[in-house]
């Protein structure tokens, strides 16, 4: 009897010990996985965090942001400007801590190569592998339009910057899309205000894709409301290097103004000058581009138009910080056309997370961000509740020669308020 009871007792203790070891191993494996995911980093940012929503019970998972940008291709300079601004925006909004509401902020940056199919691949990788909570992007309207359905499918907030096509917050919009970038209609209101009036004849030139066609459609609507007559619309291959036939058709239409919508490195300005468009009595108007493109516009000194941003135009503390920090961080280089947009996107995300106390539940974020105002280098922006388009200032300018600067400088004629540039709701 004694031996039988002893054997049963030993067997019970052995089984209890096995159970304790198994339980301990499971607990240890779970903790190790979280620590590994939190610490995994690379030069572009960070990868692989578990879960898409943070709560007060789990403070270990970082909040992750995926940035899609053209770091190569026709819009490479725009992508690089956006990324610089995004990094500075996180630094500004978190006061250098890279944390919000007790959560570490990490990011992944991917090159779309200015190709929609690549943008889809990179966005999918960010969502499925890197487990990002937010997307930002992209430089190209075509890239951005390709990614919008993924934001809806995976229920991820996407901040659109700097793509401008109206359809992004119009026909192709979904509730997960917010845009800090201005849209084509906002550009159009500013552009039309500069030149349109009763009986003014205007021809247009734009690249033949969503950005260009949406931009011209919006400009035409705004200009015709002011009494102008659009006498010719010309669309060129976005990859073109020879615009001779396009420009000749415009000359033949004999407009008072040529209004140009353009983006990318292969600009038409040199050929417009070579073909002596202005000497034929046709005035040029456009949105003042980035600094590299301004350097090709000497022939357009005196032109009146508008701009999204030039570093001397906004007068506010956020822009002062950006100019000073960018100069010190980038060898005296001033922030460029889309640098403040990247900064604004980062500020918007941090502000939203402050408002939710770090909660990344997508429905709570949408509710928080609709109607949300936040300070940016361009002044106060507000996400309009109806379509999540950020209402913002634009600038009526004249290109002038300024001592010590080797390109035409956009000089402020008048700041156009967010109320003035508010576009129609098109979604």
Automatic annotation (TrEMBL):
Residues 39-55 have a biased composition (Low complexity). Residues 30-60 are annotated as: Disordered. InterPro entries: BCAA_transport (IPR051010), Leu-bd (IPR028081), Peripla_BP_I (IPR028082). Residues 1-27 form the signal peptide. PROSITE patterns: PROKAR_LIPOPROTEIN (PS51257). This is ABC transporter substrate-binding protein. The lineage of its organism: Bacteria, Bacillati, Bacillota, Bacilli, Bacillales. Belongs to the leucine-binding protein family. Residues 62-400 form the Leucine-binding protein domain. Keywords: Signal. CDD domains: PBP1_SBP-like. The keyword Mitochondrion does not apply.
């Amino acid at each position: 009897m004694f031996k039988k009871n002893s054997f049963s007792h030993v067997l019970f203790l052995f089984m209890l010990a096995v159970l304790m070891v198994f339980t301990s191993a499971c607990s240890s494996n779970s903790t190790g996985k979280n620590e590994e995911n939190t610490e995994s980093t690379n030069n572009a940012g960070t990868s692989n965090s578990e879960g898409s929503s943070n709560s007060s019970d789990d403070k270990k998972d970082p909040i992750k942001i995926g940035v899609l940008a053209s770091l190569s291709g026709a819009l490479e300079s725009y992508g690089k400007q956006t990324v610089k601004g995004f990094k500075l925006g996180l630094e500004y909004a978190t006061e250098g801590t890279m944390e919000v509401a007790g959560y570490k902020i990490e990011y992944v940056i991917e090159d779309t190569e200015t190709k929609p199919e690549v943008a889809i691949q990179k966005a999918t990788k960010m969502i499925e592998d890197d487990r990002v909570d937010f997307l930002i992007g992209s430089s190209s309207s075509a890239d951005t339009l390709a990614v919008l359905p993924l934001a809806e499918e995976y229920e991820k907030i996407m901040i659109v910057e700097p793509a401008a096509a109206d359809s992004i917050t119009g026909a192709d919009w979904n509730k997960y899309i917010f845009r800090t970038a201005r849209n084509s209609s906002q550009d159009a209101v500013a552009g039309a205000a500069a030149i349109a009036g009763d009986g003014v004849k205007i021809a247009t030139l734009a690249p033949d894709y969503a950005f260009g066609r949406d931009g011209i459609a919006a400009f035409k609507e705004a200009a015709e409301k002011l009494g102008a007559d659009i006498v010719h619309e010309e669309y060129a291959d976005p990859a073109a290097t020879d615009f001779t036939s396009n420009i000749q058709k415009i000359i033949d239409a004999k407009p008072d103004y040529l209004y140009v919508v353009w983006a990318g490195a292969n600009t038409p300005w040199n050929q417009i000058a070579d073909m002596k468009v202005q000497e034929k009595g046709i005035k040029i108007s456009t949105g003042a581009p980035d600094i590299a493109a301004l350097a090709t516009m000497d022939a357009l000194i005196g032109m009146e138009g508008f701009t999204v941003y030039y570093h001397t135009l906004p007068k506010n503390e956020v822009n002062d910080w950006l100019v000073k920090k960018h100069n010190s961080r980038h060898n005296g280089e001033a922030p460029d056309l889309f640098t403040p947009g990247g900064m604004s996107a980062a500020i918007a995300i941090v502000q939203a997370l402050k408002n939710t106390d770090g909660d990344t539940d997508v429905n709570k974020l949408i509710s928080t961000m609709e109607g949300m105002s936040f300070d940016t280098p361009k002044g106060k922006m507000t996400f309009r509740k109806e379509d999540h388009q950020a209402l913002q200032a634009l600038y009526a300018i004249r290109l002038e020669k300024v001592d010590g600067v080797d390109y035409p400088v956009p000089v402020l004629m008048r700041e156009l308020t967010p109320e003035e540039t508010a576009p129609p709701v098109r979604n």
